Amino acid sequence: MNKVCAIIGIGPGNGLAMVRRFTREGYTVAMLSRNVERLKELENEVPGAYAYQYDAIDGERAAEVFARIHQDLGPVSVLLYNAGAGVFKSAGEVTLDEFESTWRVNCYGLLAATQAVLGQLREHDQASLIVTGASAAWRGRAATAPFASAKAAQRSLAQSLARQLGPENIHVAYVVIDGVIDLPRTRQAMPDKPDEFFLDADAIADSVWFLTRQHRSAWTFELDLRPFGESW
Predict the structure, then answer these.
(1) In the predicted structure, residue 173 carries a pLDDT above the cut 70
(2) In whole angstroms, what is the distance from residue 70 CA to residue 8 CA?
(3) Do 106 and 150 touch, CB atoms closer than 8 A?
(4) Quick check: 86 pLDDT over 80?
(5) Any idea which of 19-33, 102-116, 186-200 has the lowest mean pLDDT?
(6) For residue 71, what is the enclosing H or E element?
(7) pLDDT tens across 191-210, in order?
(8) Residue 113 has what pLDDT?
């Protein structure tokens, strides 16, 4: 049976690094994102990666998209939910639409994808579902009301899934990203920051890969990743 990994949320940082990491390990990777033009470019750049246009908040299409992945590539054994959105405002500043949209990407989208892919994960002797989280899941600061509440709920949903699916040999893990990803745009925005201030996306992808290789007797549920200089 082919090894198939589906990644929802393909940006220039973590998403792309995960695509490269898993294809390098022999996986066929389904890349799911709204920007299908960019995904098509990546198809040419990364052998073994294939584009599927999908918006994480369009839950009604999840079953259709994952059925097509199953038909094209085979049953998914690893789902990486890397979609995320944040509105950084206080409870008094955020609009109801902004609040809802943040929850839809981080929570609703995770549930929709899980429901759509669960049957495929169950076709394998061992499978993995890894969620990209944030340190906001632990703490709600004054100007993070929508993002922190959505990430806290996402973490709780992942924990519920881990308890439900663990007995079926499906490893669910939540990866807390605590810091700023090293990208051209973040370097430009923070020109005075030293190299060690930033998180390296390839190193994050290595850690995600490690989670999918763990023995079930010593599974990690929550893995927090941060550079040594990050305040926590």
Answers:
(1) yes
(2) 15
(3) yes
(4) no
(5) 186-200
(6) helix 62-73
(7) 888 888 888 999 999 999 99
(8) 97
DSSP string for residues in 173-219: EEEEE-SEE--HHHHHH-TT--GGGEEPHHHHHHHHHHHHT--GGG-
Write out the E strands in the chain: 4-8, 28-33, 49-53, 78-81, 127-134, 170-177, 180-181, 198-199, 222-225
Q: Of 38, 147, 129, nearest to 82 (Cα)?
A: 129
Reference 30, options 13, 12, 14, 51; nearest CA is: 51
Question: In the CATH hierarchy, which fold is given to the domain comprising 4-225?
Answer: Rossmann fold (3.40.50)
Give CA–CA dist 69/113, Å, rounded: 13
Q: What residue ranges do the domains of the chain occupy?
A: 4-225
Give the Cα separation of 17 and 23 in Å (integer): 10
What pLDDT is stored for residue 1 in this prediction?
55
DSSP for residue 58:
-
